[in-house]
């Protein structure tokens, strides 16, 4: 009985919060909008229907606080034309094998957005 109680506590314990960053390089000739999405819970960054806007041929560091081990995917699209998109797209509904990362404390993942 004690083992079951301990196992239930381990499962019910929330994941530890982690601070990590994404370094987004926009190598396109157009500005892009970027949003980060959790695949494990209903959460996005920056949130509140906002996006990270990255000007052409520039880069931005995007710090987030996420749950340790959480799957974070990026969606990116040409600002003003979401038909041209990358990653999981603006609605987090596109398949993507290479656009998701695991939340790990004090790490930085790089995202290269190309033409």
Automatic annotation (TrEMBL):
**So which residues are the signal peptide here?**
1-17
Ordered alphabetically, the record's keywords are: Signal
- Source organism's superkingdom? Bacteria
Q: Does the keyword Signal apply?
A: yes
Question: Mind telling me what this protein is named?
Answer: Mlr4654 protein
């Amino acid at each position: 009985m004690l083992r079951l109680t301990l196992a239930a506590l381990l499962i019910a314990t929330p994941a530890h919060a982690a601070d990590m960053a994404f370094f987004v390089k926009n190598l396109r000739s157009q500005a892009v909008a970027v949003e980060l999405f959790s695949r494990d819970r209903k959460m996005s960054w920056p949130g509140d229907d906002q996006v990270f806007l990255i000007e052409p041929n520039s880069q931005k560091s995007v710090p987030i606080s996420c749950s340790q081990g959480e799957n974070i995917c990026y969606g990116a699209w040409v600002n003003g034309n979401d038909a041209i998109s990358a990653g999981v797209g603006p609605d987090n509904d596109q398949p993507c094998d290479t656009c998701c990362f695991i939340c790990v404390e004090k790490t930085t993942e790089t995202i290269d957005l190309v033409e």
